[in-house]
Each structure stands twice: as C-alpha cells, then as structure tokens.
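> tool_call: predict_assembly(chains=two)
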Amino acid sequence: MSVAIVAVVAAGAGSWLLRGSFLALGAGRVLPASFDRALVHARPAVLSALLASVMAARFGDGGPAGAPPLVAGLVVAALVAWRTRSLPRTLVAGVAVFAAAGWLTGVVGLA
Amino acid sequence: VATALAINARFLIYSAALSRTWRDQPRWFRWLAPYFLVDQLFALVGAQEGEGRDPAWMRGYYLAGAAVLWVTWLLVVAIGAAAGPVLPARQALAFASPALLTALVVPALRGRPALAAGLVASAVAVAARPWLGSGALLAAAAAGMLAGRIAERGGR
C-alpha cells in the first residue's frame, strides 16, 4: 500500500474519531453539568467563529481595497438570511451584491 | 497535521453538543452518524433542537439531510471541476463560502445568549487569529459558549 493511501485512510480515521468521540465512543457518559449547559450555545458560537475566520481571511487576501465588496455582501446576506431564512436566496444575494460592489469598485473582475 | 487537527477540532464540539440530545438514539446510528457530520448538517440538526422532536424523527431528518448533502457535494464537485475553468465571474464565487455560512449563522442567533455567544466567538476568532492561527477557532468557540452561558445566567 502506498504512503498516500495510508495517509488518506489515517486522515479519514482521525476525522471520524473527532466526529464520533462523544457520539459513539463516549456514548452514555454523563458530561460535567457546566460543560453540558455551555454546549447549548455551541451552534451560534462555532458557526459565528467559522464565519468570522473566513471573513478575516478574505479581508487579508483583498487588503483595504477589497473591504467594501465584502462588507456589502455580508450585510446583504445577513439581511436576506434574517428575513427569508432561505439558504439559496442568501447565497445568491450575497454573491450577487459582492460581485456588483466589487465590479463597481474595480476589485472583482466579472469577465 | 497540527493545523488539520486545530481546524477539525470543532467536530469534537459538534460531537459533544449532539451527544446531549442523542442519548436515546440506537448504537448503530451513533456509530454511522459521525461519518456524515459536517458544518451544514450540524447547523440544520441544531435548528431542530427544542422543537420536541422524537428520536426516530431526528434520525430520519439527519439521514435524509446527510444523503442530500452527500449527493449534492458529489454533483457540485463534479460540475465545479468540469465547468469551473470556463465559468465567467469566478472571482465573485470567492464570496460563496461566507454567504453560505451567513445563511447558517443568522438563524442560530435567536435570543440574547445566542447573540452573546456569536458576537464573542466572532471577536475572539478575529483577535486571536494572528497568535493562535487555526487554533483560534477552538478558543473562539469556547469563549462564545462561555459568553452564552453568562448571558443566560444574567437574563434570569
């Protein structure tokens, strides 16, 4: 078996171990009460942290000139998500506004 | 390897969070489900929490969501690989990932504790990035969950 295949299998196993740690391997174990209560907020905390990380990376890539299209896209996407709760509409609106603002400011090429 | 572990450490939190409400799920499901666990599925399933769903309904919802995401992922990767190089406005698609995450985050920010968790986690994710790199995500998640807990107590 080649090194690459071993690496892929090991990565897959490691990934499953992280995902299955509490669900499969630790099933039935009672978590400490304070940790258990804090986990109620895992969804807003982790997803917000992910979004902030991705946005920070995009800001870093584009520099100050790239900021306006990113901010415009984010604000519109947040508004559409809030009003419609629709993933496709949020995706289309965010990308469209980002592209339009980027084209207007000369940051994003549409050709 | 360390970077991959740091980025994927959020799945530990997802696993712990889901284990709270999956205590009544059968063993086969608890062993199969982690294979399909991704951010989008965690967000979708989390949105059903507190809705009084029974374990069988949640199981069906999770597996249906997993199937849809899996098939969609395969199709989209194939289409992207074939059509990507000839697509116009490829630069605009750089915003697809933030837009998708926004669609998942906004519905999760219901109520003061959730808002506090989201705001603190975002601030820590950005502030800690230069020092902790990929590890900032885990620190941000922990800080956000703590903030949510504090806001919850303060609201009583």
